Protein 1
Amino acid sequence: MSWRELPIGGMVVEPGNSIARRTGDWRVFRPVINQDVCTRCLICWMYCPDGVIKLVDTPYRTSKGRVWSFTLEIDYDYCKGCGICAEECPVDAISMVEEVK
Amino acid sequence: MRVVLNSNYAVAYAVRDVDVDVIAAYPITPQTGVVGKLAEMIANGELEAEMIHVESEHSALSTIIGASAAGARVFTATSSQGLEFMHEVLHIASGMRLPLVMSVATRAVSAPINIWCDYSDLMNVRDSSWITFIASTAQEVYDTIIEAYMVAEDPRILLPVIVAYDGFWMSHTYEPLHVVADKRYVRSLVPRRDRVKLDPLKPVTMGSLVGPDWYYEIKYQQVEAMREAYDIIRERDRDMGKVLGRRYEPVEAYNIDDAEIAILTYGGIYGSLLESVDRLRAEGYKIGAIRLRLWRPFPVDELYKVTMGLSTLIVVDRAISYGASIAGPVAIEVIASLHRMRVDLDIVNYVAGIGGRPVAESDFKGMLELALKLGRRARELGTLYWGVRGVNYE
Amino acid sequence: MEPYTGEYEVLTMSELRIRGVRDLPREELFAPGHGLCAGCTAGTIVRHLLKVTGRNTVIVNATGCVEVSTTMHPYTSWRVSWIHVAFENAAAVASGVESAFKVLARKGLIDMSNQYP
């Protein structure tokens, strides 16, 4: 790519294109959410520094019969395995599992 | 419309006429009149603009970078210490490719602190990738500010522009000049153009970190923009001639056709040089005068054309590049430029007018006579410092 | 921008009433893939900042970890307008941006109502 094709002054005109860098390969441990224990308090979603915990409108029925209208899912393409979600979860629904390649 | 203004006010009138949006104001002698006059114009409704009173020149330039990034037409003015204070931001402004315009009333740099005119401040910012014009009359200051906006905002260039003129000698001296009577006419010369800017509907990231893998290419874009600017400026000089009736050239010459010797200088002392050349011609010297108007990009072709028939060229500089083999910054460029074109003339460099010391017609005559007396030695000495007590070359 | 599966409303600052966690907007204006250290809460802070300010935001960032890690050329994590100039002049640049919008709107050169609702 020559100097002619770059936007001038080093401007980046595509917002949010850092999604091309899949930082998921940084991690050693991966967080796994136990959907049965999760109370959908949204603390993990708030604290994630990368915004990889997604609030999806998938309903979930726990083993005890409680029905949630949404679920929290982790995007493993970008999760760096920092463990903040596991640390902050008030009901210990998230466990850090060693990444097996 | 014919008016009597000093160069500071001429800048203000031109800035008013092009309809700027944001002005950052910080005072420094000898440019304070520019921002003072602009404040007066905003207060009485002649100019619709936001004036931001900043706390330093560093902020002055930073503020107009932000405003220009948001799409506004901007302006600020400074001199010497102010220009030095904003030095890091000068490079950022050109690196971000923003069409800023700044007027510089040249003044000597400290230490010792000196408020009078020399070009050491302007020469110091030579490598900052700002297109630089050096004006010699208040009329030229007015015209060049308008041209500066035309050049800076050209989508093929998008580099910031400095318009420089002598501090005190020009900034505070009143001259008669023509200003355009109908502002709308000036505004039609500098139409509003679309460019990439900070817009919530089209988010862009400006000023990101660039590593060794892409920095060079981005800087090369600036090199090419400067190169294109050279051609575009010559076009604009011609256009200005057609629309305003006053035409300028990147290098102007007087009485050069049959000249064997010429004196090249820049800024306000060119007026004295013209007087001097007339008197020397009457005495029988075949001498001409050359004025450098465009400093960056350096006008290699025009310089070559005007120096073609000469045997000796005397370059009178008003700044010192300490420790250089030839201390006059313009002399260095002239020599390099003619060397590229394989022209070998005798070039004698004088440094004069430092710290506001006047350079009169008699000084030019003295410089010529000394150069002729020294002959070959003048070239070997490198730079001759004119008018220093205790320095004698004979 | 990644597609969002549910429906949501983008609220302006005046309409934003955050009484609890459930009221936080779901839109992520800060994309993952940035180079901040794993676990650096600077990322959390930026995410929350943008949830409150919304899309009609211009971020003026001083030189620092956030600036360098989130905009490593040619990638950027910002989904809003962003400008970085130098180390200590973020406030000055922000003054300039603000004045520019004010005067351009006054002159009718930009339409301030033509933003995200």
Protein 2
Amino acid sequence: MSLNRFLFILLAILVLIGVTEALGQGQAPPLLIAVSFLATTLQVATPLTLGALSGIYCERAGVVNIAIEGMMLGAAFFGWLASIYAGAAGLPMIAALLVGVLAALLTGALLALLHATLSITFKVDQIISGTVINILAVGLTGFLNRALFFQQEVPHAPGVLPTIRIPLLADIPVVGRIFQQQPITLLAIALVVFTHWLLFSTRWGLRTRAVGEHPLAADTVGINVYRMRYANVLIGGVIAGLAGAYFTLESVPSFEPGQTAGRGFIALAAMIFGNWTPFGAWSAALLFGAAQALQINAQFFGLKVPSQFVGMLPYILTMIALTGIVGRTIPPAADGKAYEKA
Amino acid sequence: MSEKSSPGPGSTSEESKSSLASIVSEGARGLLVPLLAVFTAVVIGGVVIWLTGTGPAPADVKGWPGFLVQSGLWRPILAYSGLVQGAFGSRRALSETTVWATPYIFAGLAVALAFKGGLFNIGAEGQLALGALIAAWIGFGLPGITGPLPAIVHVPLAILGGALAGAVWGAIPGWLKARTGGHEVINTIMMNYLALLLSSYLLNGPWKDPDPTNVVAQTPPIAQSARLTPIFADYRFHWGFILALLVALAVYWLLWKTTLGFEIRTVGNNPSAARYAGMAVERMIVLTMALSGMLAGLAGSVEVVALNYGHTLSFNIGYGFDAITIALLGKTNPLGVVLAAILFGALRNGASRMQFLTQVPVDIISVIQALILLFVAADAIVRYIYRIRARGTKLVLTRGWGG
């Protein structure tokens, strides 16, 4: 990602912190406000980071994935459901939650398999195929949520994933709060580093980028285009599943219809703003996360502006980011095009 | 097609007969895949109802064949018969089906028109919400500024005001696409959330019904002069349905009988060719999105003026996604959209009767809807299941992220 864009993001996040400091003036020590703001930003950016990574795997291989939202929603629901059943079956809390996470990953993978089958094998328009999955996820989770818990109290998951204290760093006074995070948040950051390495330093990454940029050339040198695309879409699905698990197993122990509230689409914007690179997408996700953190803080500090207007901030930022004000971005050349083997 | 349908003066009666027959068979073949897609989706929906059902059989299936009762197969059968009854079983049911279908026709046309111009409008939901919001304000708020208005002015003003609001809401992502290349798929979705938040603010704040008994986020009722009264007493069937049919004809005329429509379709089919032919592609993108948003805005304003006489905050109704399915099921053809919209109106209307009879949640309709879209989009699957050979050319709908 270009230095310009990185500086823009840094500046924008600093402005958001500044606004929060101004709001909370006198209500809490400035350092505490900044630390809690950053900690919140890291948390709420998690599904955006993971969603953007999911998009990067798919699109670097040439498959547009607007189904991230649906994959997240489906994974959030089935992960939550599995953890409830596992808890009811007598598993201890942490084991039940892990079962939930596995179910979420599996849901993401299955929906990704559907997307891959439709768009790679059947060559359905990739955006339409993504829309099918988004609608399917809304319908299926809404239906099952009501069919299974019809006229009864909807149960809660056994709990949320425990906070992990990073040794030494978490013990620093005040600032240590940033280094006390839940596992999916930490895993998301690790996946950013891993994806960067995988894409740009391994043979797998080179092949993935080759089928996304020029599938015919890749095919000619003996790379199996279909297999690379299937594999990357499936990996993307698993990561979107992890993002879904964040909602119902890490953030809150409950599910509500439409819980993902467009985060999957904001994640896509983060991917584009980050120019299809892991670190670029991560910093964009942090920016959108910071906008959301401001919203949370504004409510907490009793801001006079109606909450709806502060709530518009992430969506407006997303639209501004897409205008390319801070430099144009270039998608993989074969992104969105089905490959027809000659 | 249109040449065949009107045989020239020189053609013999035999020729015209054969061409008429070929049109009929062509039309039937065009309907075959969508119908089979709907049928397959309904069957799979039945399997889902069957698999998720619990509890004993109610009294009214006691007389049924034993295997239906024991296997639980009574459940989808009872559910679907309830659905059909609720959708078509009485005059009232039919009237309600048209009430449901009305916004679907407008919104489906909105998405279909955008598709024709090579644009994917996922924002019908927000454009509709904004149309309803502004129409309601013109209905209840404007007389406070201008003084009382005669119905002949007030009604069209409210309808067109809502349409204009939808057009603006659609034109913004269109302009962003034309000027900056920001993709309309993401921007229209962002505009949906902005519309929702704006509605939430206005309906909970300045535009909230001040009546002391009101606890809901809704506007005051609109003035009598802004209302279209029902056509028949005791039925909710309203003028909006008729208007929707007329607008469908108008969209057909616009797309295939006017220069503007030709330009929209050319830009949609091949923007480079359109540019070479001297068309202002960027302007067409903004215009297409504005027209599309206008149609969705009409869906909202007609609901306010002809049916609800006010606007209530609604969340996640799903008009936007429904409209996409309707547009694709209707093959982006205005007449097809009307048929698909009536089908969806029937499904949504019948579903509440189904839930009442069998406790199968109405959400099953969304599952069926996703399956319909799946089979319409991947018609290769339907062709494979039913062994139908592929014919004709494929619709080009969307392109990748590149401007």
